[in-house]
Amino acid sequence: MSIVLIDRTEGQAPALDQPRDDRRVAGAPLRKTWLAHEAGPMSAGTWECEVGRWRIVFPPAKQEYFFVLSGRVRLHERAGGAFTEVGPGQGAVIPPGFEGEFEVVEPVRKQFVLVELPGGSV
Known about the structure:
Number of domains: 1
Radius of gyration: 14 Å
Distance between the termini: 26 Å
CATH class: Mainly Beta
Order of helices and strands: EEEEEEEEE
Helix content: under 10%
CATH architecture: Sandwich
Shape: globular
Low-confidence stretches: none
Strand content: over 45%
Mean pLDDT: 92
Structural class: mainly beta
Number of helices: 0
Oligomer: single chain
């Protein structure tokens, strides 16, 4: 097994998508994902996105750690309206069961690690 470098995106075509229409709050940002590693319940890669905002709901068994390389995002909590802003050089965890909105304030590039455990519990 070899070590996988997560930010090796040169020459790789990203997967392209946009938030679903029923989840969009502002804009229709283009999202680019370079999946670098996938094994069992974990995947990791690099993600870029244009400015926009959409609703997200994490299942009880899914969580994400991410590290912002450039740009700025806000995670808005559904309950209470508080938000957490994450910028260059900062990392954050989206916990299992999180419900709220993901907002890209400045075009963002981040590295991510997603973990999804079977059985619905973390």
